[in-house]
Amino acid sequence: MAEATEILTTWFGAFAIGPTGVVRAYPFPTEPAALADRIARRRQGQRAEEEQRLIDDLGDHAARTRDRRLVGGPVTLGGTSVVDLDPAAYGHDPDGLRKLLLLDADRALAAAFDPSSHVDEAVRAVHDLDGILNTLRERIASWSARDAPLPDPEDAKAFDEALEASAERDRGDPLAPMVPELVDGRRGLTQRYLELRRSRRELEASVEKAVATSAPNLSALLGPGLAARMIAQAGGLDRLARLPASTVQVLGAERAFFEHLRGKAPPPRHGLLFLHPDVQGAPRRLRGRLARALAGKVAIAARIDRERAPLRPSLAESFRRRAEEIRRPAKGHDGVNRPATPRPPRPARPSS
Fold first, then answer.
1. Each residue's pLDDT tens digit, 164-191
2. Which of 6, 14, 133, 231 is 20 to 30 A from 210 in CA distance terms?
3. How far is CA 82 from the centre of its chain?
4. What is the pLDDT of residues 10-47, one digit of tens each?
């Protein structure tokens, strides 16, 4: 084999190119699945079987290539050969590259699909329903108050019970003799509100059930509801599992974080993790430390759940022990427990 031999790989095969043209040819299989497998291996930096066989057959003969994957032994980096190879001459459809790329894209999309994206959509749907329900509640309360006072809408339970009673009320409404159609319309609007409220509860229960099954470690650590919101805020369980603990700690506090970057606010100490009972119920001076400890455990739990590993109760127990240590008063030099000294207030930033 001449020293000027160059190894060239195309989508349909591996070839040894000499001064006079193709010296050896190792076509890839014509089956679409086998061809897609060759593309995937090349993308991962591996050699296809035909490429390795070609290199082995060259033996100790020097060769060059412009493909870094093939460099090693007598094969060095380099080459300037320009050869126009016809795929039909080696049993391949000239239009096969397009079909191959479409098949490879389908396989890549299927491999990258994150089932937890459905949790993201469901959590956002619950959020949307909350906005719709709040708007309808205010409108119905204002409208119904024209006839008889209703409980404060802030008292959701009492207000909803009053709405249910009004929805069952007969047509003996003070407005009926005047505009009965509006009475029917208001009753229908109230029914829609009550149906949406039931749908919202059912959807939330479904989300919590799904998260408890698909992310058991996160659910045990945060509770199913907060675990679902963390997954949705991160954009899926796969992305949450890739985030460092420092980012997990401030998920949900993006606005405050960017205000800090502009120099208009101190750095946020927690985001959605504030909703965890151990963080929310702690003294203000301890919330940042508790959120940091919890974020570390959340990052570990997300990685465990992404690998579909079983529940590890020790993870939640480890956080509980750490939370107790943080809450425990610091000991002085004489061994007496004393409450931590509060930090002095931050100096005001000069206005720009």
1. 676 665 445 555 544 667 777 888 888 8
2. 133
3. 45
4. 888 889 888 888 888 999 988 888 888 888 888 888 88
- Structural domains in the chain (count): 3
CA gap 247, 245 in Å, rounded: 5
Supply the range of the domain harboring residue 96: 6-112
Note whether residue 350 is domain-resident.
Answer: no
Strand ranges (DSSP E) for 48-131?
63-65, 75-77
Q: Which two tokens stand for residue 222?
A: 């945060």
Task: Measure the CA–CA gap between 327 and 278, rounded to whole angstroms.
Answer: 10
| 187, 97: one domain | no
Whether 10 and 28 map to the same domain: the answer is yes
Whether 206 and 221 share a structural domain: no
Name the CA dihedral angle for 69, 75, 76, 82, rounded to a multiple of 10 degrees.
-80
Joined tokens for residue 307:
């690998």
Cα gap 119→105, rounded to integer Å = 25
pTM: predicted TM-score of the whole model, two decimal places: 0.60
Give the Cα separation of 224 and 238 in Å (integer): 17
Residues 6+ apart with CB under 8 A from 61: 1, 2, 3, 5, 74
Q: What is the 3-state secondary structure (H, E, C) of 162-189?
A: HHHHHHCCCCCCCCCCCCHHHHHHHHHH
Let me know if residue 287 belongs to a domain: yes
Q: Yes or no: say if 209 and 230 are a contact pair by the CB < 8 Å rule.
A: no
